[in-house]
Amino acid sequence: MLTIIQKQFTDMDNFNYLVFDNEAKIGVIIDASPGVEALAEQAEQIGVRIDKILLTHTHHDHIKGLPLLLEKIPGTPVGVYKTGQEDLGETPRKQPLKDGDRIEIGNGFLEVMHTPGHKPDSVCFYNDEVIFTGDTVFIGGHGRYDLPGGDAHTLEATFEKLRMLPDSLILYPGHAYGPRATSTLGEEKGNY
User: Fold this and answer.
1) Which DSSP symbol is given to 165?
2) pLDDT tens, residue by residue, 133-176
3) Total domain count for the chain?
4) C-alpha distances out from residue 93 to 8, 74, 76, 97, 118, Å
5) Which domain holds residue 157?
6) What is the pTM of this model?
7) CB distance 39 to 5 below 8 Å
């Protein structure tokens, strides 16, 4: 079972996550909003080694904190869906992600699901207990599709993929736009 620390940063109410195996003391950080280096500091305080930084997509508010985060934990690979690599410019140690990749986190894991529609490089990270949806699904709604690269029909196809996953998955969104910080995928299926 993975331990999850959810932190809200920026004036856009971004959520970033520290996800780790408490026994192995290995973890990942999901998304890199301004202020995310505080999660790296927290990981250091509790003795967790950050193995990877994972990006749900490369919109500015989800990657602007990446340079400072990489100063805190230099040499850490940055996992981003293959079509988002160019958005990271000269970021070192980019690792392309693809649909179905399995990311080991100590004795736990997250799987990559490509979920385009909000942005072509959007992904969700999930396992048999949780799902991190980035800007694909929020509490009480879903991400925009009217920004560059967004597409309503593609997003609807993504929703069909998500409807196939278990209702019991605890949903962790990319922004604090809803009445609470988490939900379940089943509760949100009627909202997208």
Assistant:
1) S
2) 999 999 999 999 999 999 999 999 999 999 999 999 999 999 99
3) 1
4) 26, 10, 7, 13, 25
5) 3-191
6) 0.97
7) yes
